[in-house]
Design goal:
With 675 residues, this protein is α/β, with parallel strands linked by helices. The chain has 4 domains: 292 residues, no CATH class; 78 residues; 195 residues, Nucleotide cyclase, GGDEF domain (Alpha-Beta Plaits); 65 residues. Helices cover 44% and strands 21% of the residues. It has 22 helices and 27 strands. The strands form 6 sheets. Strands 19, 20, 21, 22, 23, 24, 25, 26 and 27 form a 9-stranded mixed beta sheet that branches. Strands 1, 2, 3, 5, 6, 15 and 16 form a 7-stranded mixed beta sheet that branches. Strand 22 and strand 23 form a beta hairpin. Helix 3 runs parallel beside helix 4, helix 20 packs antiparallel against helix 21 and helix 21 packs antiparallel against helix 22. The chain is flat. The mean pLDDT is 85.
Length: 675
């Protein structure tokens, strides 16, 4: 349970970070990326990855005016291009006098050379502090670089339990040495860091550490820092030497802090943060330095204040609930209290003060549950159960009606005439294969949410979601004389809502989605079906099965909405539909006459009515077994309306009958053997 609450707390912090943190940085920190663009640009010139180290020479030289250059690249082995390659880069480091390289602390028991021991001693912080992590050995830059750089620090960081990087240690222990974090090394070099009474101070500001770690305050913008590609810096260097105006002036970097890191695909590990599921180590280092230098800290609220806040919540909630015997009032109180608590926490977070969301919400929940326990256990329990259950999958008016007539949902079932609605996204599996899982979930949620709102608005009961499909019904727990009309209206509105979603998908360069809908009316068993422990208000029977099959039949006719004759007969003249014939779906022997629902009668365009008139003429020939005449009319329709699925289906069927006239065919009933 504690793990679940801990993960909830972490996700709440992420949510606050995304919406309440500052949008962009001060601009004093710049990132130079060794990205795919840079690798491709040098590859075209015959320089393949990994690059010779002298390639970094023009970058370091061009950044020499920067206050500091953090090169987040490990140089732990001599260059494969020879000693001269290392010497060229070492000279660049020494000339710039502003470069910091990382060390990588390890838990392995490994002896360090005298040079490494001396190097770690030189970069250590003077003063005693209890570190959060201790290590046994270090992987350091090669000896050629040790004397050329300004300093170094550890880049070993670990994520939180859910794999997200929210905290970074500031000081690490290696034997008797206190090793600074990579970005802290620059401040150590400038004598800006002091350790006083086991706390770390930068200038006169105390870094707020929890268990030795700094809670990072990421910027809400995806790219809060100014970013350049390595190839852009190299080209600017060459242009500047050739007396050509560079795209980036060298003076731009004066006084700034620059991070150089690997961001090309395959060269870095994904490091999710509170803001983004895809980030890099260099972005985390840049954020850490920005937080420290600008004192942009998230500080934890005092424990005394948390306790007082929790006690105040318990008192106010308990007092209010015990004075009211109305479940509606008490639930409203709970929701309002929850909203107020979240707003207070958000306001504190905005002011750089972080309070655990679990503590006050736990106080609210516990005090509320204890206060309403007696009412819930007696007369209020049944009404609370009904309200909570039915409000999840039906319109509020229907839920209120059931509360007044609880006998409607007694355990078991009752035969009722219902109208069943099935909707399924066509080709959604293929759609999901070309975009990220996160985007798939977002799109599916948006679609199902849109369809659900349409169905509930038309007084439908949401039965269940099955992957990318939804089932709904009308006629239970009570019926109206407009159930079939409401179902058909829902189908048309679902298509309209999908058009709006497709408009957004097109704007993002994504393929459009299509929907198939099947509707059938007839007798079914409606009631609470299931076990004593778990049951669900639903409808079952052949009517449900046929509605599901009609949704699938759309695939063969290339239509969007197919309804049965039993449904259409109850809609009067409200809708315009075309007959598709009698079909026998898989698992059913008795044929059913079905129709394509095209739209509301008054909204049909004249061209569409002309098409249907031609189709009905061709279908009349088909019913009279005039196969050649029917085929000819269907072909004429397809010349003018090449995307008309039903005409294409019947053209092919006529040609098949003509070609197989020697066989005995059930021409009047279309049998589907596939779902």
């Amino acid at each position: 349970m504690s793990n679940v609450l801990g993960l909830f707390e972490l996700k709440a912090y992420d949510l606050f970070s995304r919406h309440l943190n500052p949008v962009s940085s001060s601009g004093d920190i710049v990132i130079v990326e060794v990205d795919q663009q840079s690798i491709d640009a040098l590859s075209e010139q015959g320089i393949t990855w990994p690059w010779p180290r002298q390639i970094y020479f023009p970058i370091i030289e061009y950044l020499s005016e920067a206050d500091a250059v953090f090169m987040d690249i490990l140089f732990t082995e001599p260059s494969s291009y020879g000693q001269e390659d290392d010497s060229i880069l070492a000279d660049a480091f020494k000339k710039a006098s502003n470069v910091y390289l990382p060390v990588f602390l390890s838990q392995k028991q490994k002896a360090m050379s005298a040079q490494d021991e001396e190097f770690m001693k030189n970069i250590s912080i003077k003063g005693e502090i209890s570190p959060v992590l201790s290590f046994n050995s270090a992987i350091t830059p090669i000896d050629a670089f040790k004397s050329s750089i300004m300093g170094s620090g550890n880049v070993t960081i670990s994520p939180d339990e859910d794999g997200v990087y929210r905290r970074v240690p500031i000081v690490f222990q290696l034997k008797e040495y206190s090793i600074p974090n990579f970005v802290l090394s620059h401040l150590v070099q400038k004598a800006m860091v002091k350790i006083i009474q086991n706390s770390v101070y930068v200038k006169d500001a105390k870094i707020p550490l929890t268990n030795g770690k700094l809670l990072l305050r990421y910027y809400a913008e995806d790219n809060p820092f100014r970013v350049f590609s390595a190839s852009q810096i190299i080209k600017s260097y060459l242009d500047s030497n050739a007396s050509t105006t560079p795209s980036v002036n060298k003076d731009f970097f004066r006084g700034k802090v620059v991070f150089i890191g690997l961001t090309a695909a395959g060269l870095y590990d994904l490091k999710p943060t509170s803001i983004s599921s895809i980030s890099t180590g260099v972005h985390i280092h840049a954020t850490t330095l920005e937080n420290i230098v600008n004192e942009n800290f998230i500080r934890s609220v005092s424990g005394i204040f948390v306790i007082v806040f929790m006690l105040l919540i318990c008192f106010l909630v308990s007092y209010s609930v015990l004075r009211s015997h109305s479940l509606l009032v008490n639930l409203s109180l709970f929701i309002v209290s929850l909203f107020v608590i979240i707003m207070i926490l958000a306001a504190l977070f905005k002011a750089s003060l972080y309070m655990s969301i679990i503590s006050p919400i736990s106080s609210l929940v516990i005090s509320f549950l204890i206060s309403v326990a007696y009412s819930y256990a007696t007369e209020g329990r049944q009404r609370l159960f009904l309200k909570a259950t039915f409000s999840q999958y039906m319109d509020k008016k229907i839920a209120d009606y059931i509360l007044e007539n609880p006998s409607l949902i007694k355990p078991g079932g009752k035969v009722r005439r219902v109208t069943v609605f099935f909707a399924d996204l066509a080709g959604f599996t293929s759609f999901a294969e070309i975009i990220s899982p996160g985007k798939v979930a977002t799109v599916l949620h948006k679609v199902l949410n849109s369809l659900t709102e349409v169905l509930i608005r038309n007084q439908g009961v949401i039965d269940k979601y099955i992957g990318d499909s939804v089932m709904s019904f009308w006629g239970a727990p009570f019926d109206t004389d407009k159930d079939e009309i409401n179902a058909c209206h829902s189908a048309i509105e679902c298509l309209e809502s999908l058009r709006e979603i497709n408009s957004d998908l097109r704007a993002e360069g994504l393929p459009e989605l299509k929907i198939r809908i099947g509707i059938h009316s007839g007798p079914a068993i409606a009631g609470n079906i299931g076990s004593d422990r778990l049951f669900h208000y639903t409808v079952i029977g052949d009517t449900v099965n046929l509605a599901s099959r009609l949704e699938s039949v759309n695939k063969f006719f290339k239509t969007s909405i197919i309804i049965s004759e039993d449904t259409l007969k109850k809609t009067g003249n409200s809708f315009f539909a075309r007959e598709l014939g009698s079909i026998a779906v898989k698992g059913k022997v008795q044929p059913a006459k079905v129709f394509e629902l095209i739209g509301e009668e008054q909204n049909i365009e004249p061209a569409k009515k002309d098409l249907i008139a031609l189709f009905n003429r061709a279908l009349a020939f088909y019913k009279e077994r005039k196969w050649h005449e029917a085929a000819q009319v269907f072909i004429e329709i397809l010349r003018e309306y090449p995307n008309d699925g039903p005409s294409e289906f019947y053209r092919d069927r006529c040609e098949y009958i003509i070609s197989n006239s020697h066989l005995t065919l059930d021409w009047d009933v279309i049998k589907f053997t596939e779902k």
